[in-house]
């Protein structure tokens, strides 16, 4: 059951909008109501043949997202929380610092790949900028943070699997990997992994956008061509701190978001709904859906363990978009090397949950590639996100 006891956060969020406070409050309440009326949430269900239940596939195709309830048990959530505490302890004291608050080398400061991204508290660092090929077309309202707020705070941790073994184990979840197989085929390919950090009073906004950059004008364009993301929730997700989406827009091709905002008369886009769920729930979200999130002016944190997958046909011999990693042509060898993260994740999870039947990832198994998670493989994972399959 989803908890709706967030009235104080809704009131606090609306209060930041000045003369628009009542409109914002109504928008949050109506969005919450509409979200909970949708019939696209429930436990993971497979049919008698081991395939994802057809009702789930049809509903996911209709809306562009589905909320799988109670995917992670409490011990897994606790493991992730413990890792998060350790990650935060290791964060450098500022975006340009090399040391953490204990005068130790800061997390990721010895990496070549980008990792910890920072933002102005309650800001919108991407909206209206050329970052990510300009896909965040408009800038969202930036509420004023508290007077004692820091000048910047961590916003996204890229390449998260190399920093958190608990996140790596979540990546190897057999039922989630089976879902990836059902949607993208048994030769599915990895995409990109990160942690979204939306702390109360600090968490930045992410302007309305569609993910995907490469295949909008392709002759074979379809609703699955840019892949999907799993969004595992550590603390839950609400109308205030969560991602909002416009259901069904994943089928419509590239959308003029500036026009959407202009037609709406504000950033409160009609028909959008928030992704509302509890700790341990996992959302599957089509990357082509129009989505975004407001600054977290409420009282609840949101930490999302984010990881995505592609159809192999969408990335094989395709030049990357250069958003999550430097542009490269993704040949078979490149994809195989990047897919090693899946093999490591499966073994890491099996070590933690030996009674759970591990997933068999066919592209590695068919080549008799067996990967073990140990100290050596930890070193192999360093900077692995330089090979993110960004399209």
Topology:
Elements: H1 7-15, H2 21-37, E1 41-42, H3 54-63, E2 65-68, H4 74-90, E3 116-119, E4 153-158, H5 165-171, H6 174-184, E5 189-198, E6 206-209, E7 228-233, E8 243-245, H7 257-264, E9 273-274, E10 282-286, E11 291-293, E12 302-310, H8 312-315, H9 332-352, H10 362-365, H11 375-380
Parallel strand pairs: 1-2
Antiparallel strand pairs: 2-10, 3-4, 4-5, 5-12, 6-11, 7-10, 7-12, 8-9, 8-11
Helix pairs in contact: 1-2, 4-5, 5-9
List keywords for this structure.
single chain, 391 residues, alpha+beta, Jelly Rolls, 8-stranded mixed sheet, 11 helices, 12 strands
Task: Tell me about this structure.
The protein has helices at residues 7-15, 21-37, 54-63, 74-90, 165-171, 174-184, 257-264, 312-315, 332-352, 362-365, 375-380, and strands at residues 41-42, 65-68, 116-119, 153-158, 189-198, 206-209, 228-233, 243-245, 273-274, 282-286, 291-293, 302-310. It is an alpha+beta fold. The chain has one domain (7-311): Sandwich (Jelly Rolls). The chain is globular, with a radius of gyration of 20 Å.
Low-confidence stretches: none
Alpha carbon gyration radius = 20 Å
Beta fraction of the residues? 5-15%
Question: What does the main sheet amount to?
Answer: 8 strands, mixed
Give the helix tally: 11
Q: How many beta-strand segments?
A: 12
Quote the distance from N terminus to C terminus: 36 Å
CATH architecture descriptor name? Sandwich
- What's the helical proportion of residues? 25-40%
Shape estimate:
globular
Q: In which order are the strands of the major sheet placed? A: 1-2-10-7-12-5-4-3
CATH class division: Mainly Beta
Q: What's the CATH superfamily, by name?
A: q2cbj1_9rhob like domain
- The CATH topology is Jelly Rolls
Q: Tell me the structural class.
A: alpha+beta
How many discrete structural domains? 1
Could you tell me the mean pLDDT? 96
Order of helices and strands: HHEHEHEEHHEEEEHEEEEHHHH
